[in-house]
Write a structure and sequence with these properties.
With about 60 residues, the chain is mostly beta strands. Helix content is about 0%, strand content about 35%.
């Protein structure tokens, strides 16, 4: 994986935030937080920091 592909969105420490949408659906937001070692607000396109660890692959929508 190239450095330009490393963003908070692809890190295993990133927890994406969601908003309750119509009915029982949830809509993902473009923000979340990092849980390593403490919570810090992040955006999905933020370049990865030195704590980066490859997370799960994104699901195809």
């Amino acid at each position: 994986m190239e450095d330009q592909d490393k963003t908070c969105e692809t890190c295993k420490h990133f927890y994406r935030h969601y908003v309750h949408w119509v009915g029982k659906r949830f809509k993902p937001l473009d923000m979340g937080h990092c849980g390593n070692p403490r919570c810090r607000d992040k955006r999905i396109d933020t370049p990865a920091c030195h704590r980066y660890a490859k997370g799960r692959e994104k699901k195809a929508e």
